[in-house]
Amino acid sequence: xxxxxxxxxxxxxxxxxxxxxxxxxxxxxxxxxxxxxxxxxxxxxxxxxxxxxxxxxxxxxxxxxxxxxxxxxxxxxxxxxxxxxxxxxxxxxxxxxxxxxxxxxxxxxxxxxxxxxxxxxxxxxxxxxxxxxxxxxxxxxxxxxxxxxxxxxxxxxxx
Length: 159
Ligand code: FES
Known about the structure:
alpha+beta; 5 strands; iron; 2Fe-2S ferredoxin-type domain-containing protein; mitochondrion; steroid metabolism; Adrenodoxin_Fe-S_BS
């Protein structure tokens, strides 16, 4: 009897809310919230923070997305590094020269190719852990990366 009353009352409520189906109103709202939260979490997971350290020790914090290059991070965050990335990533200037900590350098997935090595040879203050920022693609495990910016840059196109 109790079960029969519950079913009857549920049917009455469904008719009263005009939908004919009790859960139709709330289900889409809940789905929307879950979906939005999922996107927010995914976007947060794709963010990689990077700190650029100038020769004078000043630190500039920035962030990029997985798949961005370090040149993209500088451009998209308006990081004030004079002359950085002059050739816009076409491997003809060496102005995006950055110096990595040894640990970070060794974890980079790709070694520099011949074209990058040729450009690095023209960079000032070259070290064993130097790379060109336009050739480094961010991955999630680079989150918190700190790279040093040389005091002087050389635009190889000017030679
Ligand atoms: S931006 Fe010119 S070599 Fe990287």
